Amino acid sequence: MSRATLRLLDKADKEILKLPRAVKGAIYDFQHKFRQDKDNPGLRFKRLEGHPRLYSARVNLDYRALLLHAGGDDYILVAVKPRQEVYDNLDKFAYQINPVTGGIEFVDLVSVESTIVERRPAGPEPLFAKFTAEQLLELGVAEPLIGLIMKITTEDELLALASIAPQLTGEVLLALHTGKTPEEVLDQITAPVAVAEEIDTDDYQAALERPATVTTADADLREILEQGDFERWRVFLHPTQRKIVQRSYSGPARVSGGPGTGKTIVALHRVKHLVDRMSPGSGKVLLTTFNTNLAADLRQRLIALAGAEILRHVDILNVDKVASAIVAEASTGGRRSRIDDTKALREWEDLLLEEGETRWDADFLHAEWTQVILGQACATKADYFRARRAGRGRSISRQDRAAIWQLAERYVMRLDAKGVWTNQQFAERAARIELEKARDRASYEANAGVQRESGIWHRPRYRHIVVDEAQDLSVAHWKMLRAMIPEGPDDLFIVGDTHQRIYGNHVSLGSLGINIRGRSAKLTLSYRTTHEILGTAVRLLGQEEWDDLDDGHDDLTGYRSVLRGPDPVLRPYPTWEAELDGIVSQVQEWGGGSIGVAVPERWMVADVENRLGRAEIVSTSITGEGPRLVDAPVHIGTMHRFKGLEYQRMIIAGVREGLVPRTLDFEESDPLRFRRELRRARSLLFVASTRARDSVVISWHGRKSRFLP
Question: Which of 74, 286, 319, 540 is the most buried (most CB within 10 A)?
């Protein structure tokens, strides 16, 4: 018996997913037999004529697997095709070791040629006519594709080619098409994945182990095929992401990028990388994010990536639970219950009603208290008078500050009487506790350990901290995290996108002692959202400006997708009742797959769930802990609840004026706050629309939102 190992090459999974179900089942049987004995007569395993490394093997009567021999017992599954297509197109299969990245690449020229429309000499100028073949090769473009690339004349052809071409080739061509110079592409896209050593373009065994060769491991492919779960492919890194994950940083590092670019995958792999490098007993890693349901999702995905054993070395908690644990451990402030922002706002509203106060609204006072008073640790009225209010919008006088301080004191007394704290109070108290411990550590180190016997020595709580969805954390959260871990190599790894900021927290990391300058990376290629959905989603953001968490500006320049799908559908209804009927009809029309229904208000969730139930459609609502019934085919929630989740199809309902955005009556009195609220509403719509992989329907009743075209 001649045993073999089998891996799956990047992008082969997309072709396999399109095959009939019976063929997918046959692939499972094939891979099992191939591993046991590749020379089994029933497999008809043989080398293809004219190809020293390409083999075919029988999957079933009508389909053949194409296998690239990397040497020894290692084979790579590069495609599964109808039998006749294989033998009719032997001269159309090309493979190489990329001389820039050292990675293995496979190209099916038949599929590529089908994307290019031959035109007469008088047709439009090719998109890449101004670039030479030598320039493209230097940037890492696959050599077998050069001739066809020079014939591309439309963006549709480019996107179609990029979706099936090797990863680096697609990224280079898309970047050049968006206006980047070859020098910029070389620096930003090619150089990060290029290898320094001399490359032997005939040594496939060495190429198989390089990061640029994106494949499953043998055991991983076996598990994927056995479970029929090609979603597992999402946990594998592409070369650009791998460089970010494995790099050693001298201090805090940040990764930004639009939805679907793999930021969370990078964060998870970074956690595994840090754990793998730690010596026994040297500490733990904290993986934290803003939402509780996101923390639960991160836990499951990390287990899928690294196994349950990794949980011995990693704490996965949402940031408010981290703060609560610190306060509880210190037994400071007595026993307190924690209330969320909705209840905290309700307390402000009740206070203002009781006081007969009409100069300020609850939203303004809550933000002033959390972002300025708590955010800058103002312990006295004098501290508040000196506090900076940069970016807060509405200017206030000294007399105003005195009145606000008095209201804040009454608000705190109100919470104390009920024995509750807000999330921000817990975070601010936790930050103070951790800062005190940090000072103790500094004192210990300065005095050569003299104080250790006095009991004030405190070991750092974590060795490394990884933060996902960083844009939603508040000033107090960041102060706490900064105090929890000493400054040093690989201390903080921060992942986020300010275009998805939906909670109104604005920070400057540099001002909080988190210096990320020179240690930032940006991901621009979406692996989830189609080109059509992405275009609509970006337009929903309008012409607003977005910060980068560090007093600079961020944008989505170069953000792109090579996936194709139907255009998003915009659908009006006369009433909410009619819109509910439309949701039912759309779910029935789709018939299957994972479906999300996002709405702007909580009361609408129950309406949708009830209406689907009457139509005998199983659905579930999404709570702060995640979906109540994970296996339900339809998940329903507010737009906030969909943060970090992913569905095959999305319905975004109730996108009407007055709900998205809510009615705002301070456009004249506080224009900066008004613009911020509009940005937050745009971000919510952007987040909801980019949860979809394939299809999006956006609906409204009455007057549509000003954000919609």
Answer: 319
